[in-house]
Amino acid sequence: MTETLFIGLSLSSILLLIALGLSITYGAMGVINMAHGELVMIGAYTGVLSGIYLNLNLLFALPLAFMVSALLGLALERLVIRRLYGRIIDTLLATWGVAIVLQQLIRLEFGLSFFGIHVDGLGPGLQSMDVPSFLTQPFEIAGVPIQTYRSFIILVTLLLTLLTWFLMYRTSMGVQVRAIMRNPQIAAACGIDVRRVSAFTFAYGSGLAGVAGVLLAGFKTVMPEMGASTVVDGFLVVVVGGVGSLLGTVLASAMLGQINGVFAILTNDILARAIVFGVVIAIILWRPRGLFSFRSR
Amino acid sequence: MTTNRRSFLKTGAAFGATLAAPSLIAGRAGAAGEVEVGVLFSQTGGLSIVEKSLADATLMAIEEINAAGGVNGMTIKPLVEDGASDPKTFNEKASKLAIRDRVPTVFGCYTSASRKAVLPVFEKRNSMLFYPTYYEGFECSKNVVYTGAVPNQQLSNFIPWMMETLGKKKIFIVGSNYIYPREMAKVSKILIEQNGGEWVADEYLELGHSEWGAMVSKIKASGCDAVLSNVVGDSVISFYREFRNQGLSHDEIPICATVTSEIEIAAMGAEFAAGSYTSFPYFQAIDSPENKSFIERYRSFVGDPSAVTHHAMESSYFQVFLWKQAVEQAGEASPDAIRAAIGGQTFDAPNGKVTVDPENLHTHLTPRIAQWGEDGQGTIIDAYPEPVEPMPYVAYGETPENMFCTVAGLDSSKL
Which residues form the signal peptide (chain B) (predicted)? Predict the structure, then answer.
């Protein structure tokens, strides 16, 4: 039983990890960022490449991936999304295009493969990232074997959630972000630099995606297409939790992760996934705005 | 098939130039002294990483044959098409090759999905497909020459060996959720029961699924003493990683796989697979001068000194030679002539002697078992003394004395 709960907890933490950045970009800024999964993918490749070329281990790859994805997110905001605020369907299309471009950049090794140059760690193939051995040996608590790497993911997710909460609810920047979430025009009228704050918020959310990417790379396959499936999970959580609610995102990922884990053990993974989708459909029928939501924009 | 002026001139020229191949007048082939073949694999998309190596091996074989004087004095001209990892595209490209280019032979397809998608084209247009992948069997087309392993060639040695040599009696069967792993599981169950073992579970995960937490903990809780894995593609990597992360070791509960090849091992990091087993007719580790030379030639052909070779890729290579021998024996390259001549063709492939079965057009191959080491290479620890007869319907009771698929076609009353 404890083991089942642990698997559920681990699934929850991975969902939360992906959804955290998304809940900020989608929740706070009303941008359906289809490229979020690709930012996760870029984070994963940052982990792989830093392992190959800089000999960095996973712990150092985390901040590096945060920086890379955040800068990419900043560029994305400046170049594309800034021009599309308030046009939610257009952001969906535009970021989808960006997602395809990012995927192809990795697959074509930034275009170098046209010239016959192969960069180790890029290209269409499968990659993997080395995990330091102290994170792969399982340990036991009260006779229950616990996986170190999954515990590590849970820990990092917890820390990132606390950090996000702190930034959003305990700093002046956070107050500004929340003001923009409620009503950008009034926020601007109150003297908040909406553009600047939005850009930083988007960069932060993108950076979180990068961190998620590195952690996923430790136990999933790294490949150019990996983002597409992760972004679906992220949107599920954000939609169920309620747009713009940190608490909702946390609770929704906990719930969906546990449902997935418990049913995967009781029946099988395929059915568990179907049940999760069923629950999501039921919830959005019952509460179209998600479990926790407030009126905004 | 309309004969326009151009193709009339072409075939006329071909006729004049090569009297040895009179039936070229039937309308395929390009310029004089050339015979066109199709090469249809995914050059782009998710499957391209594997399929590109199959296309490369095919082209390498064609280049070698051309360098040695071609087929009946004709140069082979490959028409390379891209299936783009999409069965629908495979179907379109196969139609293009069969109808517009009128090539009598196509070397191609990797997944069963793509083969099923092109099959109607080849049957309707009476063209030949040479298919190099190990697959689930249950097919008896007279327009396909199957040069990869069928379930009995991967399992008939593997399961008895697991029971006797490894002493594993309780088997957990796990696979990706589609036709190949499900058919493999069917055959496995028959063999496990015949050999006095039991299967404790038969579980599936979605294709491409990478969350193995629940499944591996089920494996742990099941009390099995070995895992038979029919998991394919990128899921393999997360499976082996999770297996190790949950504290299981291949010493106690080995993963015995039917799909995990050199490619997946290289991608997951060799230490995660070290100690596990795979059954295939071909491994890069086969220690023979023929194979060593094959690996070297392949590496210089693709210009990558660390390129890996694997089973489907080796089949892609030797099937071109089988085709060449059939064309030479028949004296012409028409599909009917190839079909008549291909049965019984024998070739010394890098994995040893291979023979095309005249009845079901599948290939006699030698099953081998390898244990993976820390360096990502297998050590061959068991091999059949001789090639094993292919039985595509073994899951449905086919035996060497009672073949379902014969020259006359499939005897469906036996199913």
Answer: 1-31
The pLDDT of residue A126 is 79
* Chain B residue with the nearest C-alpha to that of A269: B205
- Determine, for residues B238 and A118 on separate chains, whether the beta-carbon distance falls below 8 Å: no
CA nearest to B44 within chain A: A124
For residue B112, the one-letter residue type is: S
Q: Which of residues 100-119 of A touch B (CB under 8 A)?
A: 118
ipTM of the complex: 0.83
Strands of the sheet containing B363-364, edge to edge, are B346-349, B352-356, B363-364
Strands B144-146, B105-108: pairing kind: unpaired
Beta bridge partners of B156: none
Q: For the full predicted model, state whether its pTM sits above 0.90.
A: no
Instruction: Please tell me the number of Cα atoms within 13 Å of A100 on its side-chain side.
Output: 6
Check for a shared fold between B5-149+310-364 and B152-280. yes
User: How many helical (H) and strand (E) elements, i.e. helices and strands, does chain B have?
Assistant: 13, 17
Asked if the model's pLDDT at residue B347 lies above 90, the reply is yes
- Residue A53, both tokens: 């070329």
pLDDT (tens digit per residue) in B86-141: 899 999 999 999 999 999 999 999 988 899 999 999 999 999 999 999 999 999 99
CB contact under 8 A, A270 and B206: yes
Q: What class does CATH assign to B5-149+310-364?
A: alpha beta
Residues in chain B closer than 8 A to A272 (CB atoms): 214
Run of H or E residues at A85: none
For residue range B285-328, what is the model confidence (pLDDT) as tens digits? 999 999 999 999 999 999 888 888 999 999 999 999 999 999 99
Q: What residues of chain B lie within 8 A of the CB of A148, using their CB?
A: 245
Q: Name the residue in chain B with its Cα closest to that of A126.
A: B267
Q: Who's near B23: CB < 8 A, 6+ residues apart?
A: B331, B332, B334, B337
In order, the DSSP letters of B293-349 are HHHHHHHHHHT-TT----HHHHHHHHHHHHHHHHHHHHTS--HHHHHHHHTT-EEEE
Is the Cα dihedral B366, B163, B261, B140 positive or negative? Answer: positive
**pLDDT confidence tier of residue A294, bands split at 50, 70 and 90:** low
Cα distance between residue A223 and residue A129, in whole Å: 11
CA distances from B310 to A153, B36, B134, B282 (A): 35, 26, 11, 7
C-beta atoms of B213 and A10 within 8 A = yes
- Of the listed ranges A1-10, A258-267, B100-109, the one predicted with least confidence: A1-10
SS3 assignment, position B71:
strand
Extents of the domains making up chain B: 5-149+310-364, 152-280
**Order of strands across the sheet with B198-205?**
B198-205, B170-176, B226-230, B255-257, B277-280, B368-372, B378-383
How far apart, in Å, are the Cα atoms of A116 and each of A106, A111, B44, B303?
Answer: 15, 9, 16, 10
pLDDT in tens, A226-247: 888 888 888 899 889 987 788 9
**What pLDDT digit, counting tens, does each position of A100-113 carry?**
999 989 988 888 87
B75, containing H or E segment: strand B75-82
CATH number of B152-280: 3.40.50.2300
